């Protein structure tokens, strides 16, 4: 059995902790069979190979009596780079328990479990459902709604350095001034309305108008402004910080992708740039 989970790009500008989209990088979790101890084979650097691996801890939190397994993980989602690697591991763990214990979890139940673990649904919900998702928690439970998917590609600029979500969250203020909070919320509300009504001229302006997190994180990722400026000169639609960064996502018309990528290379940035498209399936068995 192989479980496949897509990467996800959260926030899309003003949708802090509530909007995310599944994109075409994947974690594949193969179940090789029962084992004396939990064993996780992977080539993902320092991540644990035993029962402390996040995939296993998640699976055991769903089904504590799950017998140990020998697992193999292959993933092209870069870890701590703002493309939802932790969410891919959590979603893989939920699905592992679901399959091995035949729990028959609904998609909504998977979103609830994974969001409780991650704390917000912006990465786990698209990783489960596929596509573009808006969600939050209310009275301790999570709701996630699927928005229409826009017909564009992404140029993901992936810097050579990593940035832990915890560190990027530490850069945020504890409080926002009341009038600033009202304006930030109005931007986010109108952004969501523009997505659901497919008013993309408005959506892409608002995607670059976040007031909740990008102003506080831009010093950590100087490439955000550099690429945003390149995008304006080379026909890109909008650029935002993917999740907690440091990946910078640019939405591009499919026929303008090549020229935008060339402009980023010519800009002398030392990260890599990867063409991504939305994933519509979410977690699935392959
Ligand atoms: N394939 C994996 N298997 C097990 N654990 C993983 C895996 N990928 C990521 N993790 C865990 O998630 C942590 C990284 O989470 P973090 O939230 O900092 O980054 P991210 O999820 O890549 O970024 P973002 O949440 O901004 O999209 C790793 O340190 C590790 O503990
Ligand atoms: N919404 C989250 C995504 C990363 O978990 C953030 O920006 O911190």
TrEMBL record:
Q: What broad class describes the main subcellular location of this protein?
A: cytoplasm
Catalytic activity reads: L-homoserine + ATP = O-phospho-L-homoserine + ADP + H(+)
Give the UniProt subcellular location, in the record's own words.
Answer: Cytoplasm
Chain sites annotated for binding ATP: 78-88
InterPro entries listed in its UniProt record? GHMP_kinase_C_dom (IPR013750), GHMP_kinase_C_sf (IPR036554), GHMP_kinase_N_dom (IPR006204), GHMP_knse_ATP-bd_CS (IPR006203), Homoserine_kinase (IPR000870), Ribosomal_Su5_D2-typ_SF (IPR020568), Ribsml_uS5_D2-typ_fold_subgr (IPR014721)
Report the EC code(s) recorded for this entry. Answer: 2.7.1.39
Q: Kindly tell me the pathway this chain contributes to.
A: Amino-acid biosynthesis; L-threonine biosynthesis; L-threonine from L-aspartate: step 4/5
* Keyword Transferase included in the entry's annotation: yes
Which key words are in the record? Amino-acid biosynthesis, ATP-binding, Cytoplasm, Kinase, Nucleotide-binding, Threonine biosynthesis, Transferase
Q: Which GO terms describe its molecular function?
A: homoserine kinase activity
Q: Does the keyword Zinc-finger apply?
A: no
- Domain GHMP kinase N-terminal, residue spans: 58-131
Question: Highest taxon of the source?
Answer: Bacteria
Identify the residues that the record assigns to the GHMP kinase C-terminal domain, covering every copy.
203-264
Biological role: Catalyzes the ATP-dependent phosphorylation of L-homoserine to L-homoserine phosphate.
Regarding protein family, the annotation reads: Belongs to the GHMP kinase family. Homoserine kinase subfamily.
> What name has this protein been given in UniProt?
Homoserine kinase
Q: Which organism is it from?
A: Limosilactobacillus walteri
Q: What is the lineage of its organism?
A: Bacteria, Bacillati, Bacillota, Bacilli, Lactobacillales
């Amino acid at each position: 059995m192989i479980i496949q989970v897509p990467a996800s790009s959260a926030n899309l500008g003003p949708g802090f902790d509530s909007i995310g989209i599944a994109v075409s990088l994947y974690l594949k979790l193969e179940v090789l069979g029962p084992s004396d101890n939990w064993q996780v084979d992977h080539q993902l650097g320092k991540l644990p190979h035993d029962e402390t691996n996040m995939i296993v801890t998640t699976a055991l939190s769903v089904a504590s009596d799950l017998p140990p397994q020998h697992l193999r993980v292959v993933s092209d989602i870069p870890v701590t780079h703002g493309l939802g690697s932790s969410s891919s591991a959590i979603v893989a763990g939920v699905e592992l328990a679901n399959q091995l214990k035949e729990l028959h979890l609904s998609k909504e139940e998977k979103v609830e479990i994974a969001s409780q673990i991650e704390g917000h649904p912006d990465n786990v919900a698209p990783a489960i459902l596929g596509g573009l998702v808006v969600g939050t928690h209310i009275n301790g439970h999570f709701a996630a709604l699927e928005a229409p998917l826009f017909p564009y590609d992404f140029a993901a600029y992936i810097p050579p350095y990593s940035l832990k979500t915890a560190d990027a969250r530490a850069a945020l203020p504890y409080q926002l001034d009341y009038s600033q909070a009202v304006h930030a919320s109005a931007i986010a509300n109108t952004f969501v309305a523009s997505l659901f009504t497919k008013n993309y001229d408005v959506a892409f302006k608002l995607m670059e108008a976040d007031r909740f997190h990008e102003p506080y994180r831009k010093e950590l990722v100087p490439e955000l402004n550099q690429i945003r400026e390149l995008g304006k000169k080379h026909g890109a639609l909008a650029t935002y910080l993917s999740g907690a960064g440091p990946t910078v996502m640019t939405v591009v018309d499919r026929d303008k992708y090549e020229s935008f990528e060339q402009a980023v290379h010519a800009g002398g940035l030392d990260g890599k740039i990867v063409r991504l498209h939305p994933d519509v399936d979410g977690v699935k068995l392959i």
